[in-house]
Amino acid sequence: MEAVPCARMPNPLAGMTTDVSPTETNKRASLAPYYLIVFGMSAGLGGVVALLAELKHELGFSDFGIGLSIAAGFATAFIASLVLAPLADRGKSPQLLKLALIAGAVALVVLAIGDQLWHYVLGRAVFGFALGAGSPAARRVVIVADPDHLGRNLGRLGAFDVGGFVVAPLIAVGVTAIGGFRAWFWVSAAFLLLLLPAAFRAQPDAAEQDTERLGMAGLLRIRRLIGALCIASAYFVLIGAFESVWVLELDSRGASQVLIGLAITLVAAPLPVFSPIGGILAQRYGARRWSIGTLTIMTTIVGFYGIIPGAWSLIVLTLAASVVEGLGFPSTPMLVSAAVPEARQAAAQGLMTAVEVATGAVASLAFAAIYGTTSDMVVWMTVSAVMAVLLVGGAVLSRPEDRNLVRPGVPSSTIRRLFR
User: Fold this and answer.
1) Angle of the 257-268 helix axis to the 32-50 helix axis, nearest 10
2) What is the pLDDT of residue 50?
3) Chain Cα centroid distance, residue 271
4) With contact defined as beta carbons under 8 Å apart, do 419 and 331 qualify?
5) What is the pLDDT of residues 342-385, one digit of tens each?
């Protein structure tokens, strides 16, 4: 029988080529299990966030106590991302996805039966661990599966990620109205367990692996990567403030639980809609330029959150910021991806996740404390200022060494174009 020749597949991420057979190429193209699992994990988190005000009213948690539970989730996600993400570079992505689903379901059961603050701190901590285990593994496979369509695929992954967060609050409100706030946690846990077959369908990617077991070693010596991490951190200053303050501020402005659930869905809806488009545009015009531009607009808008009065005005302004965020959402992981070789994609994405959640943990605690002692105006002006500082630092550090920007449309390697 005649042997099937290997196809030479370009690898723009690392500027090298990899031999893969047509069969391996077809396996790498099947990204549906990764999209579905990310959707389920995000939906679990979205429902928990939507019920923060409900937990405050039903169980009497303080603003700081809620911020503490959120910070616990960020902290464990930080640890899991650093420790487990390098395993995905060694072909362990499917196992990490199974671990993420099982741990996420266990966490939601703890939230369903808990009635004290430490129960919710523990539940959020376990769920954060699950997110830290699964997210970098899914990103690696999506990145290396088809580098020529990196932006599109990361945009789709972002769409499923945020899509779960969009759908969950509405469903959580409906389930809570029928069976109480604990019912949502049971439903969400069952949904994660139903996704386990998708994890068994996931296959290890056929891209170059970290055979030297470098893990995280040396990544923080890459200047462009540090710049990309600063930009990612700026996003999560906003995420941390959003989780710990935004919902509570709607509540203080007189919004009902139904309106809060609808508002979270409404302001998150542009992200899955515009994320695939944003990924394509970021790859076309340069992820560095795209991420800096979109984040600059967001930073400006956020500064007005505490100035405008009323619940609906806050919702509308947040919706405008979300449209911009949707367009910029895939550009930061693209920037991180372009800074490292193919064999170290999961480690770099895990490091990005760790930086994001560490930023989110500090931001959620800090801004919850600021909100409890000052006002929403002080909170959002501070958020905007911190984002601006990180953005400037990221822009300087991620700048190409030769400082010569490549014009759109000029053929060059993907890594060079992404750093325009």
Assistant:
1) 150
2) 75
3) 11
4) no
5) 888 888 998 998 898 788 878 888 898 898 888 889 999 999 99
Q: Which of 161, 111, 103 is nearest to 127 (CA)?
A: 103
The residues that bridge with 16 in the sheet, in sequence order, are 11
Task: Spell out the domain ranges in the chain.
Answer: 31-200+222-418
Which DSSP letter does residue 199 get? H
As a whole-number percent, the residues of the chain with pLDDT over 70 amount to 86
Give the list of residues 6+ apart from residue 1 with CB closer than 8 angstroms, or none: none
| Residue 364 · residue 155 · CB < 8 Å | no
**61 Cβ contact list (under 8 Å, min separation 6):** 55, 69, 117, 120
Q: Which two tokens stand for residue 40?
A: 């389920």
Distance from C-alpha of 230 to C-alpha of 316, rounded to nearest angstrom: 28
The hierarchical CATH code for the domain 31-200+222-418 is 1.20.1250.20
Residue 393 one-letter amino acid: G
Length of the chain, in residues:
420
Two tokens, residue 372: 């409890």
Q: Is the pLDDT of residue 416 over 60?
A: no
Instruction: Name the residue among 284, 297, 406, 384 with its Cα closest to residue 334.
Output: 284
Q: SS3 breakdown of the chain: % helix, strand, coil, rounded to 5?
A: 80, 0, 20
| Angle at alpha carbon of residue 78, lines to 77 and 80, rounded to 5° | 65
Which residues fall within 8 angstroms of residue 342, CB to CB, at 6 or more apart?
Answer: 11, 13, 14, 16, 18, 144, 207, 208
Pair 326, 274: CB distance under 8 Å: yes
- 141 conformational bin, left if phi > 0, alpha if psi -120 to 50, beta if neither: alpha
SS3 7: strand
The candidate with the shortest Cα–Cα distance to 46, out of 104, 116, 114, is 104
Please state the separation of Cα 397 from the chain's center in Å. 22
Cα 194 to chain centroid distance, Å, stands at 22
270-285 and 287-302 helices cross at what angle (nearest 10)?
140
Do 115 and 61 touch, CB atoms closer than 8 A?
A: no
| pTM, entire model | 0.76
Question: How far is the C-alpha of 217 from the C-alpha of 48, rounded, in Å?
Answer: 35
Distances (CA, A) of 226 to 223, 230, 393, 394: 5, 6, 9, 7
183 contacts: CB under 8 Å, gap ≥ 6: 175, 176
How many CA atoms are closer than 13 Å to the CA of 166, on its beta-carbon side?
A: 17
